Amino acid sequence: MLLSRNIRYSVSVDATCQTFYEQLQNYKLYRYLIFYIRTDNVMDIEKIGTRRCSYEQFLNDLRKCGTGDCRIGICDMEYRSSMPAARAGSSLMGDRPLRGSLLLVQWSPEGACNTKRTLYESGLKSLRDALGECQVLIKATTTEEATLAQVVEQCRSRSRSGPP
User: Fold this and answer.
1) For residues 77 and 125, what is the distance between their CA atoms, to the nearest angstrom?
2) Could you give the domains of the chain?
3) Within its chain, how far is the Cα of 141 from the centroid?
């Protein structure tokens, strides 16, 4: 008898995830949240980054699980717009304004087994259903797929194209 490789996991989201997400999104209390899936298939918060944390700290905390495990993170990204801002009362162009985007990153390193990857893919869907859509989604298997430069370019591209 052959077993199907299309195994689906049921992952629920702990209520605290919603609370901390709302505090990050609406009140800007945190820079980022790192989520993991507990042994009882419940998504929970593993790490909370303060507003002073950088994107590099977010990426490091996301990858702390090692090459054999996966994580999901949400980061309140701030970056400079690619377009200069017009100064009030003048036709001269000023500094590039600061923009913000909610970034959702699924970290599934190449060394993680397919079971973990499938579990976190299901967890990503559950988290998006519970929290709503983030502005930018990154699915990374290597560090190079989630560099600051690449993420900022995706954020800029998304802001130029507008909402879906």
Assistant:
1) 21
2) 12-161 (3.40.20.10)
3) 14
How far from chain centre, in Å, is Cα 100? 13
Each as own residue / partner, the long-range contacts of residues 2-7 (CB below 8 Å, 24 or more positions apart, any chain) are 7/115, 7/118
Tokens of 53: 């944390």
Q: How many CB atoms lie within 10 A of CB 125?
A: 13
Q: For position 84, what pLDDT does the model report?
A: 62
Indicate the SS3 state at residue 159: helix
Residue 47's nearest CA partner among 80, 26, 28, 20 is 20
Q: What is the pLDDT of residues 105-123, one digit of tens each?
A: 999 999 999 999 999 999 9
Output the DSSP codes for 66-94: -TT--EEEEEEEEEE-SSPPBPTTSSSB-
Query: DSSP class of residue 54?
Result: -
The structure tokens 């919603």 sit at: 18
Other C-beta atoms within 10 Å of 101: how many? 20
> What does the alpha-carbon distance between residue 51 and residue 41 come to, in Å, rounded to a whole number?
29
> Checking DSSP bridges between strand 12-13 and strand 32-37, what pairing results, if any?
unpaired
